Automatic annotation (TrEMBL), chain B:
Similarity-based family: Belongs to the LeuD family. LeuD type 1 subfamily.
Superkingdom of origin: Bacteria
Statement: the UniProt record of this protein carries the keyword Repressor: no
Species in which this protein is naturally found: Muricoccus pecuniae
Listed Pfam families: Aconitase_C
Record protein name field: 3-isopropylmalate dehydratase small subunit
The organism's taxonomic lineage, starting at the top: Bacteria, Pseudomonadati, Pseudomonadota, Alphaproteobacteria, Acetobacterales
EC main group: lyase
PANTHER family xref list: 3-ISOPROPYLMALATE DEHYDRATASE SMALL SUBUNIT, 3-ISOPROPYLMALATE DEHYDRATASE SMALL SUBUNIT 2-RELATED-RELATED
Known pathway: Amino-acid biosynthesis; L-leucine biosynthesis; L-leucine from 3-methyl-2-oxobutanoate: step 2/4
Subunit structure: Heterodimer of LeuC and LeuD.
HAMAP family given in the database record: LeuD_type1 (MF_01031)
Amino acid sequence: MLEKIWDRHRILERDDGQVLLFIDCHLVHDGTAPAFAALRQRKLAPRAPERIFAMPDHYVPTDHRDVAAIPDAEHRGMVEALTRNAAGHGITLFGLEDRRQGIVHVVGPEEGLSQPGLLIVCADSHTSTHGALGALAFGVGMTETTHVLATQTLWQRRPRTMRITLDGVLAEGVGAKDVALAIIARIGTAGATGHVVEYAGEAIRGLSMEARLTLCNMSIEAGARAGMVAPDETTYAYLAGRPYAPKGVAWDTALAEWRRLPSDPGAVFDREIAIDAASIEPMVTWGTSPEDAAPIGGQVPDPAAVEDPERRAALERALAYMGLEPGARLDGIPVDRVFIGSCTNGRIEDLRAAAAVLRGRRVAPGVRGWVVPGSGLVRAQAEAEGLHDVFTGAGFQWRQAGCSMCLGTNGEIAAPGERCASTSNRNFMGRQGPGARTHLMGPAMAAAAAVAGHLTDLRRFGAA
Amino acid sequence: MEAFSRLEAVAAPMARANVDTDQITPARFLHKPRSDNHGDYLFHDIRRGADGRQDPDFVLNRPAYAAARILVADRNFACGSSRETAVWALYDHGFRATIAPSFGDIFFANSLKNGLLPVVLPGEVVTGLLAHLQAEPGARVAVDLEAQVVTLPDGSRHPFEVDPFSRHCLLNGLDELDYTAALAPEIDAFMSRYGRHNR
């Protein structure tokens, strides 16, 4: 599948094997200002503004929608710069006042911008998300973003391929986030470096589109630049009728093309990994890397049991930062904050899963819970279903769309030492604020932690 | 981009695996413009103690490594996000080369486009080098891009791979965008053939 998409976007190949690729769709957010500044410096304009879609997400507040009221002048400046750059270059903008605004990786699929066979880039590592629709999508740096703006192309060397096959059926209460964390725990945070991962197998076919988005989103946490799922009827059903999806005759033509995308039966991958889907349990992280993940029934590992001195020292550092004792049961680690949202788990199915646990329940005393929908449309849908009442009734704050506490670029962070059950993608040191402690998990698990006041097994709540 | 051909300098050991981009530059500095000195943000939180004061034991705070222009790290250095500020911070601090057994993919690509040469050496070589640099603070390492060889303090020489085009750009201080801009006719031809396809 990678090869088919690659070949279709090849403009030319250099002697050294690097290929100049055409970019179908370039998503830009409010952190992209330096690339526009570099473009201006060179007196250049975007080569194909009709293929660029802009929305602020990193620096927007999630307690209101008024750009002028963003207290931090530098943050406000980032949002204003995006508005200005979009207007100045004729780029479509989903601004803060637009219901379609949200996190780029939620909005792209939601609007039907992300489609099978497309090559999509964005100055954000979680661009891997869009591969769930059978696109080749990866994150780029600021210099590469400038290059894409100026030329609508990018130089790349063909990555190696890895297929991760999940046969069997997922157990009750196990979702895409658990699958992602189980994979990363197994292959490591550098396990797929240099590779594009294609997820395959019965359990993947059985995942909803949104679950596939969660899975592909986390590919970068295994080191892969991109993750992909072959398009199928689930993909087509998801795309049909979306604003930017093809319509009428164009739909039929596109569909015929999409059906030819999946890897051929005899396709050879550079690496193959097989995982028994039924063996995966609800997962949480205990350390400061996404690979530090374990089933909720497990324990905090003991550095004394690690032979390699470098690994032992790393484990000791992680536990010291996280304030955890070796051998402590994961089920029972108390939490102060619960964050449900992000490009990983901020979609409507995620909110439904969390609400199913919270319905008729309350967050434990002392726990502060936030729900930050991934987009304005996710928020509207949740409200149409009454989910916001479930969240607020349970004591959660029901907020506006943005990246928020996933990385706290907008100032929404946890305090030093605060422990957060989070549906985001990274538990790095300081990720949610200096000294903040992050435990990654799926949305139902985060909701369960909010109610219990500590990490716990959502299956106890009988609402998976 | 500043040209890079050969560098002989003090190397600082960062003897940790999986140093992620959030450790290199915390997210609250991501919006800072390129004109800032991003060296001020480098390892901002991990080079300070809980009280916010510089930790004298952190490698970059030790006088012996003050002049370091080469950073040696353990495997999977700079994994995580696409933030180019991670490269800017290392560069503005004075680093011109990094050596590790492996790197995060996006950081690796970003480095090459900013005059910061990432060098992959075998794990056992890096392990030995890290130990040497810790035992002998201030030891020097030479990175020769022309010859594609690293010379360690013990005199041993280790070849490394680098993409030929990136090497060419680094040696001559060229920007990739200038090169691609000259290919506008080919890009235009592709786009008219491709049409409004998928848009």
